[in-house]
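Invent a record, attention on tokens:
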Amino acid sequence: MTLWRPDPSLLTRPAYLSLAEQIALAIGDGRLKNGARLPPHRHMADDLGLSVQTVSRAYEELGRRGLISGEIGRGTFVQSQKREAEPPYLPERLGEVIDLTILKPVCETLHLEKMKRALADLAQDLPPSAALSFRPNVVFPRHKSAAVEWLRNCGLSVSPLNVSVTNGATAGMTVALMSAAPPGSTVVTEAIGHHTLVPLASYLGVKLRGATVDTEGLVPDALDRICRETPVRAVFIQPSVINPMASLMSEARRAELVKVARRHDLAIIESDVLGPLVEHRPPPIAALAPERTLYVTSFTKTVLPGLRIGYLVAPDRYVSAVANRHLVTNWMAAPLLAEIATQWVLDGTAAEMVQWQRRALAGRHAIAAETFGDIDYLTHENSLHVWLPLPEGRTEEGFVSQSRLQGVAIAPGMSFRTSDSQWKPAVRISLGSTTREELRAGLAIIVKLLLSDPEVVLLAI
């Protein structure tokens, strides 16, 4: 039995996670040695003034991280560590399945703690308008000024008058599409593009055309050809890594697309939700064609998933349309979240979190490169995912089903398809939605399936 014991004065809510982290830190810095026996659940509970259930949940969390193991009749022991200690992680879970479907940034307990502190600070210094006002023009002038500061990090110089604060990128994308493309009109997008754009266009009565993509994204000649065949109102593009193939469009390609858009007088809707996370990137298309580009960005993929605040930048000719459609669909962004986003922009927390995310993703990409080895896949060093083309003879449905039966959930490529013209089976794999250990294990299962003979998956009815 070890002499080290957790400090009850350091326990915070949720108690089970706080207890698990104390034990994890003690293991990481050597205060709890490999093979040390932890107290029985009830003894630990009595000693700390906790319930047995709370201690059990803490032990389960430590077991999930691979830090301890239990043996019936003997007790619970610190497990041998073959890796460097790392901060605890808050993963997405689908029961016992390793979920690599949801495109989520890497998040650890520091994210949760920062949000807790922000909420506590907000409670002490809440502007009356954030709680009491129904009028966006009363609540948001200060937030729009902060947005201008953040947008400079994204490569844009804009006026606050052209900025709308939105409830994340989805709200911004919806308002932009409604503003630029009335019902019955045609919008062109990448043949492998945004997974919610197809249903959204359908709901809004907009016709969607998928155009050819290559390793840089949308091909300008393909856009030009469609525009010559049929009237087009807008083009929706994701030029900076967030697209399924994780491609980064060059500045020359962006300029070519702008020429096509000007030739046919198209509105451009640019989704740039990774914003400043992507290093060494060209200027946004909105900087090259500010007179026709509606630019969408947000904080959910770079700073914190729960910080569902974004910015929509609209050209002068669309400002009124955007304001009206935002009012009828959202009225205004959630003021409390907007307060946190603004504070984090102004005090540097948002930029700090982006830098942290970049470093964390570097570690995830290293795991992917090591595990995949010689297997070809598409990604970018700052992307949240990889795009894995399937070899000849593999079907998406079969591969995704086999992977799920092996305990790993991945996203089928067909979810991102807007055209049948250049389709090849592929899957998208998130790098940030789970722990490093689970990511490594999940990718190893995927590689094993890739290298094995394809088999028909029999599902129980």
Observations:
- The domain at 351-451 is CATH 3.90.1150.10 (Aspartate Aminotransferase, domain 1).
- The longest strand covers residues 293-298.
- The CA atoms of residues 136 and 332 lie 6 Å apart.
